[in-house]
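Batch manifest, entry 17 of 40.
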Amino acid sequence: MYEPENNSTLTSSPSVASKFDLVIIGGGPIGLNCGLEAKKAGLSYVILEKGALVNSLYNYPINMSFFSTSERLEIGGVPFVSNNPKPTRPEALEYYRRVAISGGLHVKLFEEVLKVEKQDSGFTVVTTKQNYAAKNIIIATGFYDIPYLLNVAGEDLPKVKHYYKDPHYYAFQKVLTVGAANSAIDVALETWRKGAEVTMVIKGDKISDRVKYWVKPDIDNRIAEGSIKAYFNSSVAEIREHEVDINTPGGLVTIQNDWVLAMTGYQPNMKFLRDVGIQLSDDAVLCPTINEETQETNVPGVYLAGVICGGMNTHRLFIENSRVHAEKIVKHICSLQH
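Output type: structure tokens
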């Protein structure tokens, strides 16, 4: 096995190259779980994360509550105790930070992987800080980094946001939200409750069926009473500094506007998978080629874990139903070393 420089603590990157049995790309919950399994099996490993620890969760809205219970978000057998049946973003950040510390995980933060190069005896992983040699690679990069764009004139204006943190920022402003799923609904309700004048643009004829069941009656009632204006079967036509044009079934509508919060969803980095050599399906899902028993891709020694396994179908896999990936991967790697 390769010997890591330090396999027991959260560290900052050194300037020299390192060799590992396993390089894990992505420091989210599933990446951390892969690290826990690797350490338990005695494999030398490192987890590389381009942002903060569990970066996607950090970028969630401040007041967000999970759909899942805390028990279903647990990894590594570490109990996740929350104050409510549905844990909050701060509770999740605290939990996964505690897991990383108590597990002595070898995590390098704010170090982005630029490319993975195949070598005769493994791989070279090139990052923004150094290179790593690895026998095996796990890609657990999630899907929260690339937003779906509206592709309309004015989308590049500073008033247009694809990520949302805090409703207070939009108090007493004219806010347009785009989308009909959980993120858009949360934004609409939270900003409205802080005094924003909220308009929703929804491409379908109803609020998404995926909206949290305890939230859906709230948004339905706000729309029904006229507190929040919703344009169904509609789309944004153009964004200007103080106005937005909306294509509606009744024709073009122009409204006054201060902010556009486009909660249109996010997509995984499929180009990165292609660059590594992973084959994707020919349909719109772009599902990666994976051995379901081992999580190994068509590139020997490269494994996928977490939501990235579903390609563009990002609603199929969650923390609770992809925690098993780590165990399957590490078991397969260990079987090849004996």
